[in-house]
Design goal:
The chain is mainly alpha-helical and 233 residues long. It contains 11 helices and 2 strands. The N and C termini lie far apart (52 Å). The N terminus is likely disordered. This is FadR/GntR family transcriptional regulator.
Length: 233
């Protein structure tokens, strides 16, 4: 491979300088950054070149560009695992692969959550399922959001930031696939009851039961999806 191909572009260098500015400036998620005009002057680049670097950073969640307000440090600036914003939609066997990945990752995290959860965090999980329970009669957008937030919160309680980011990335990048899984599974009460069983085990401080129930839940979903993909109604 030639040196020309591997040589960093001006936009590459500018992206790194923007990240250095955020880090060395002690900026945190939500902090406002200088305007595009100020940044162009600081880095001695044209506005189009700067905007290309800003778009790259925005695509990974490192910054947020708010119309009429300015440029802000994004919530993903400190993430180690980033979702791919260009990921194609998944179909068929890939949906099963997605669930297979979750079966490997999430049950052990549920076990850790059962060991480490506090009263406040347990109350938060309970509120999420209470919210889900109010949307079992066809309000699928709200139900889906509550369900996915429950899975994210459970992974967060495990205390491993990297694995929490892996789960969050899977659920974020493949949000449309997760909604499709809910539609194909088509048994909202059963799904809800399985979530309640997971929560009960976590609340009881029983890591083995929490791991077993999370695995059973995800395997159940995958089994139903596999059957219905093979024999569509």
């Amino acid at each position: 491979m030639s040196a020309e191909v591997t040589r960093p572009t001006l936009s590459d260098a500018l992206t790194e300088r923007m990240l250095e500015l955020i880090r060395t400036g002690g900026h945190r998620p939500g902090d406002r950054l200088p305007s595009t005009r100020e940044l162009s002057q600081r880095f001695a680049v044209t506005t189009p070149t700067l905007r290309e670097a800003l778009r790259r950073l925005e695509a990974t969640g490192a910054i947020e560009m708010r119309h009429g307000s300015g440029i802000y440090v994004g919530p993903a600036i400190e993430r180690l695992v980033l979702p791919n914003p260009n990921m194609r939609a998944m179909r068929g066997a890939q949906l099963l692969d997605l669930l297979g990945a979750r079966i490997v990752i999430e049950p052990p995290l549920a076990a850790l959550a059962a060991e480490q959860a506090t009263d406040d965090s347990l109350a938060g999980l309970r509120r999420l399922l209470d919210e889900a329970g109010r949307h079992l009669r066809g309000e699928d957008a709200e139900l889906h959001e509550a369900n996915m937030t429950f899975h994210r919160a459970t992974a967060r309680l495990a205390g491993n930031g990297v694995l929490h980011e892996v789960v969050d990335s899977l659920l974020t990048v493949h949000a449309s696939e997760q909604r499709e899984i809910l539609q194909i599974f088509d048994d909202r009460r059963r799904d809800y009851d399985e979530h309640l069983a997971i929560l009960t085990a976590i609340e009881s401080g029983d890591p083995e039961a929490a791991e077993r129930r999370m695995r059973a839940h995800l395997v159940d979903v995958r089994t139903v999806i596999e059957q219905r993909l093979r024999s569509p109604q």
